[in-house]
Amino acid sequence: MSNNWFHRQLKISWIQWLFIFLISTFLGFFNIFGQLFNGHDGTLANSFTITRICYWILCSFVFAITMLSLLWFNQKLALSKGTIQLSGTFKNCTKFFNNPWKIAAFLTIVWGLFLLPFIPVISGWDFVAQVREMTTLRSADPVNDIYNIYPIGHYLTSKTSSMWSNQHGAILTAFYGLSAKWSWQLAHSFLPAYLFLGITHFGFAIAAYSYALSTFLRRISNVYWKLFTFVLIVFNPIIFLNTISLSKNPLFVSSFVLFMALMVKLFDQNGKVNRTWILSMFLTVLIGIIAVKWAAQMYLVVLIGYLIVYRKVAWKQLLIGIAFPLILMKIIVWGLMTTGVVIADDPIEAKGIQIQQVARYMKEYPHDITDQQRSELNEIFVVDNLGKIYNPNISDPIKSSGYAKFNDKFAMGYRYWTAKPKDWVHFHKIWLSLFAKHPVVFLDAFMAKMAGYFNIRDIPFNDISTTMYADVVGNGYGSLQTGVHRLYNNQFREHASNLFYKTFNQRWKGLLMHGNFWIVLGLLLLPIFLTNWKSFLIELPILLQTGIVILSPVENSQRYALGIMVGVILLMMMLGTKKQNFLLK
């Protein structure tokens, strides 16, 4: 009798039960054993005690109950009848947010007020470093310090005099770099560039969020749920601060928000979309892959899923809207690199986890390596330095990149000035050999690199707070002084930054600003979207980004989890909607 009642209350398929077990076990493991790596010196060796295993089982059980509760909540919310009766004023207030133009006006005013202390922009390390290199140091002395921020194998530059690199995306690099260059040439200040880039980023974010919010909110029947999810988007400091952050990830997120809205349109109309949808999707995907290179792989996987479901009704629209911008960008960048106009990105960027594992090995077992292996590795890295500069938080020191100046030979990792393609030939073989000798070290390096993303008790690395200070003249970026100094050196900005930083770094008060919280919630929501292909495709890009953050150069980075944060809130807006059939089949 009780089983029949339970079955009527929760209609759960076998695939949902399977993923409830897998996800709860996975999250339980990382929230218990991941704690060992909060200080980044932990190890899995001898850690599987009876006590920890019991905690693992208990934690997994809690996550499983949470997923069952979310399934129940979704079905209860979706099957509730009609809209709650409201007073006229309150009802009109909720209808106000169904209009994208009204939402745009509201966001412009509210976010504009919140962002006053941070005018004109929050400029990230990447942009400031690019400004410093491309418009001052390089023009003054094109030999010194060119590669300190963005080191790249010199063999890639040997056949060209170009300094335009695809390391951080060629098109976005040109957009930022030319804006800064022309600003300096015309006004002898970077302030016009800051204003131009800040306004364009903010304007695009307003357009994307207003369209997405109107698309999602008008589908929600329960007014309280509508307001709750709306507040999660509008009043989250991480979200509105990133609307004026000059960095590739925030720009991608704005385009991704628009992509999610267009995807829901596709589902609502069963693939029968018009030319406006095609053009919007084309521009959205194009901006996304301009912002971050890995978006191309993500959208390609999503496209395959779309074509499986809509191959009979929308295959042309999908190919034009998604495949065409992917192919177009590939051809453009390939052509620029083939002709020597753009320098290819260094392959070391794709080996972040591997080089971190080798570095940790050299830290713990510096003498347990053959002379031949040491000699071959030494062609790529300063082997004696690897263990000393290894930092589980970030792979930049091993790559000889980042914000620090790696002119000191004792702080150098990657030999970017002498390494050749042939030097990488035996790297994978050496990597496998070292793994076979001490596999626990490699697992520890992997855990230290990614455990924080799935452990909600681990406070993320606050990229946003850091970038508030990245553009301060006091950090040594003297080239930014003219016209910008006072904007970044005033008590108003300092107090606002300190308040944000203080709140973010409190485990529970700052929880809704932590990317790893939203990653965990996104996984907990997955069983709801496993009813059929259509519903699964809604969460697929979130899942793909979850895999991508593991490969990012920064451990538990707020910036890399930003797309997941916003995406999961949009997923929450799918619960209890008017058109829920695809979630309940």
Task: Please specify the SSE layout and strand pairing.
Elements: H1 2-9, H2 14-32, H3 50-79, H4 88-96, H5 100-114, E1 122-123, H6 125-140, H7 170-187, H8 191-217, H9 223-234, H10 237-241, E2 245-246, H11 248-268, H12 275-291, H13 295-310, H14 315-338, H15 352-364, H16 371-378, H17 383-389, H18 396-399, H19 427-437, H20 439-450, H21 463-470, H22 491-504, H23 515-525, H24 533-551, H25 562-573, H26 581-584
Helix pairs in contact: 2-3, 5-8, 6-7, 7-8, 8-11, 9-25, 11-12, 11-25, 12-14, 13-14, 13-24, 15-17, 15-20, 19-20, 23-25, 24-25
Task: Walk me through the structure.
This protein is mostly helical and 585 residues long. 62% of the residues lie in helices and 1% in strands. It is built from 26 helices and two strands. It has helices at 2-9, 14-32, 50-79, 88-96, 100-114, 125-140, 170-187, 191-217, 223-234, 237-241, 248-268, 275-291, 295-310, 315-338, 352-364, 371-378, 383-389, 396-399, 427-437, 439-450, 463-470, 491-504, 515-525, 533-551, 562-573, 581-584, and strands at residues 122-123, 245-246. A two-stranded parallel sheet has the order 1-2. α11 (248-268) runs parallel beside α25 (562-573). Residues 81-85, 139-149, 403-407 and 468-479 have low confidence and may be disordered.
